[in-house]
Write a structure and sequence with these properties.
The complex is a heterotrimer of chains A (206), B (241) and C (218). Chain A starts with a strand and ends with a helix. Chain A is built from six helices and eight strands; from the N terminus they run βββαββαααβαββα. Helix content of chain A is 29%, strand content 24%. Chain A has a single domain, classed as Rossmann fold, CATH 3.40.50. In chain A, helix 2 runs parallel beside helix 4. Chain A is globular and about 60 Å long. Chain B has one domain. About 5% of the residues of chain B have low confidence. Chain C has 218 residues and is mainly alpha-helical. Chain C has one domain. Chain C is built from nine helices and no strands. Chain C is globular, with a radius of gyration of 18 Å. The model of chain C has no long low-confidence stretch (mean pLDDT 92). Classes of the chains: A alpha/beta (206), B mainly alpha (241), C mainly alpha (218). Chains in contact: A-B, A-C, B-C. The interface between A and C is medium-sized, with 27 and 22 residues.
């Protein structure tokens, strides 16, 4: 089991968004987070990634097996595809980027500057970055934004391949990726904090 | 129950509400008595004439200006370690009083020096250090004002206060070093031991007591206002959802 | 972490403008001073070490908000924060990169600008030494300020206000080192203090900078 979350509280900017969040993700599985805008999908992912603390609950996750890909892609526009990938490979201590380039069809683009890529190509680069880190558990925030249908299908097949290799993923996305039984869907509105719900900082003043 | 019970904002409001009026009265009495005595009932200094009387404002305000910052340091540490909101807000309130005290110290210091130096300002180590302290206060207050999230603001300003204290102390030594060799004789002697005989000493003590109590009163009032503001926001959030 | 340093250096060189702007600003300050105080070489050469120090400091100040802003805006900072790199290491590397792209060029160009201000012969050695010892401190302290204000919109002015009082000790000891050395006076105290400040802030301030960065990424 790659990730177990129990009774997590998710807050943003002083407001509690979600409470009692609990779920598991196993190897070879993907979890899709659904919910309206502002419901806390991004904040939940950031909490799992360690960028934010949770007031309650626990996250059982091998930290060095996880990698986070935020909403903004973090691709440097003045660096080439190769340079972008090599950087992340070195940061995460892996050496080889050739496999990722092959799988995500970046061979022709390898020396193109990040700023000259189309939206779909950038998404592929983003996924290649995840593969290059060598980590198995991918956390993705809105990975399919601004992708056309063909690209979405391509993205889905790449995720499927990742899952088939024993990897796992948690994604916040509105789009139905057609991943079938490999993917559970978690609707975050079931964990919506009872409104009005105040976080600890505000509670202290009442 | 220990003193930490007053870390609860509501309890703090109750206690401070009771003591502020009394403290305000005592502070006013001390201030009026000390200043009146100092200004009107003490003889002129043979060297500096009547302008030396400005020390009754300058010395207390300078003392408060420095100690306000140290109080902020302690309050910041308490916030970072124990997460007591009252502490963070007290630090914020104290800064506003401290910056005004620093300004008073600077202006009165300039007034004091003018007859001696012939100019309205000199880069005397004491005055220069206060000018730097003034900049630290400004930065601290500006940072509080620039951040929306109150917890983030409290965290960041607390770290700034701690780092700032180290640099402020370092600046004190640096400024002394920097001003060496420049007309030593003209430096403002705030060393009370030197100039102040008994005749001046007691009104000065009263004035100091008055200023310190004034600082406490104003900081308490400011903290109460901050707490009320947060309470109002929390109540609004509770009803609005 | 070397990878991060190399990446930041590469980005700085390719950004075109960021790197040369600090040098240009230094030049501007030095050129403006004679217009402000008059062209008398005797006066200028007396204040030359101080002007060079103030100019270098202001040029450093100018480039501080770029330290984290670019990475913050395109999401790289989040990715770096969730990578195996320790946050303290990230801020130290950022400070080093800032020094290499800003401080070091300032040190190298200072003697040239010293000519414009009639810096005395013996002053060249001292201005280079003092700037070389002091600009790393400016970068490290500046990185702290940048981390403090990274989330604030148009926080450039606030950044300057916060960092300036922190810069005062470094400026005093650095400029005094340059000035006294030029005059042939004893320079032990300012040199030791300046070196001490640089070492101490490099060793200790990254912890505060990292804490502050983490708070801002929440």
């Amino acid at each position: 089991m790659t990730l177990r979350v129990s009774n997590l509280t998710v807050s943003r900017g002083g407001r509690t968004l979600l409470e009692g969040v609990s779920f598991d993700v196993d190897a070879g599985q993907a979890l899709i987070l659904r919910g309206p805008n502002g419901s806390g999908k991004t904040t939940l992912l950031r909490t799992l990634a360690g960028l934010q603390r949770s007031e309650t609950g626990s996250i059982d996750l091998a930290e060095d097996d996880a990698v986070y890909a935020g909403h903004a892609d973090g691709i440097k526009s003045t660096l080439s595809v190769r340079e972008n990938l090599m950087f992340w490979a070195r940061v995460f201590g892996t050496k080889d980027i050739t496999r990722a380039i092959e799988i995500f069809n970046l061979g022709d683009l390898i020396d193109r500057a990040g700023g000259a890529l189309s939206a779909g190509q950038k998404r592929r680069l983003g996924l290649a970055r995840l593969m290059v880190t060598g980590r198995k558990f991918w956390m993705l925030d809105e990975p399919t934004v601004s992708l056309d249908q063909a690209s979405v299908a391509q993205f889905a097949s790449m995720i499927r391949a990742h899952l088939a290799e024993g990897g796992s993923a948690i994604m916040a996305t509105h789009i139905d990726l057609g991943l079938g039984s490999d993917a559970q869907v978690l609707d975050l509105s079931t964990f919506r904090a009872q409104t009005p719900k105040l976080n600890a900082s505000e509670e202290a003043f009442l | 129950m220990s003193v930490w019970q007053y870390a609860n904002p509501v309890k703090f409001l109750h206690l401070s509400g009771k003591i502020v009026p009394t403290l305000a009265v005592i502070s006013t009495v001390c201030l009026v008595a000390g200043l009146f005595w100092g200004f009107f009932l003490t003889p002129d200094d043979y060297k500096q004439g009547s302008t030396v009387k400005i020390i009754y404002i300058h010395v207390p305000s300078a003392l408060v200006a420095i100690n306000a910052w140290f109080m902020m340091l302690v309050a910041s540490l308490i916030w970072l370690i124990r997460r007591h909101h009252v502490s963070a807000l007290a630090s914020k309130a104290a800064a506003h009083v401290g910056v005004v005290m620093t300004m008073i110290a600077l202006v009165t210091g300039a007034f004091w020096g003018q007859p001696m130096w012939g100019t309205w300002w000199a880069w005397d180590p004491r005055l220069t250090s206060f000018l730097i302290l003034f900049l630290f206060y400004l930065g601290y207050i500006a940072l509080w004002a620039a951040l929306d999230n109150p917890d983030t603001a409290a965290d960041l300003t607390s770290v700034l206060c701690i780092v700032g204290t180290v640099f402020a102390v370092l600046s004190r030594y640096a400024v002394n070093f920097w001003n060496q060799g420049l007309h030593q004789g003209a430096t403002l002697s705030l060393d009370k031991e030197e100039n102040i005989s008994d005749v001046f000493y007691f009104p000065l003590l009263l004035a100091i007591a008055g200023f310190v109590l004034l600082f406490i009163v104003l900081t308490l009032v400011g903290t109460r206002a901050e707490i009320r503001q947060r309470r109002a926001a929390a109540l609004l959030a509770r009803t609005k959802g | 972490m070397i990878a991060l340093l190399l990446r930041d250096l590469r980005l700085a060189f390719r950004a075109g403008g960021g790197f040369g702007l600090s040098l240009a600003f230094f030049l501007i300050v030095v050129v403006l001073v004679p217009f402000g105080v008059g062209p008398e070489m005797a006066l200028l050469s007396r204040i030359a070490p101080g002007i060079l120090w103030v100019g270098a400091l202001l040029a450093c100040l100018l480039s501080l908000d770029r330290i984290f802003a670019l990475d913050f805006e395109d999401g790289s900072l989040d990715l770096l924060a969730t990578s195996p790199l320790p946050t303290e290491g990230i801020v130290t590397v950022k400070a080093i990169a800032h020094w290499i792209t800003t401080g070091l060029p300032l040190v190298m160009i200072a003697p040239v600008l010293g000519v414009l201000l009639g810096l005395p012969q013996q002053g060249y050695y001292w201005i280079i030494l003092s700037l070389a010892l002091g600009t790393p401190a400016l970068s490290v302290i500046g990185t702290f300020g940048a981390a403090l204000t990274v989330g604030i919109k148009r926080g450039g002015l606030l950044l300057s206000l916060l960092v300036l009082p922190l810069y005062v000790p470094t400026l005093i000891y650095g400029a005094e080192l340059a000035r006294r050395g030029t005059l042939g006076m004893d320079t032990t105290t300012p040199m030791l203090m300046l070196a001490g400040i640089t070492c101490a802030v490099t060793a200790l301030l990254p912890f505060a900078s990292a804490a502050v960065l983490r708070i801002n990424l929440r």
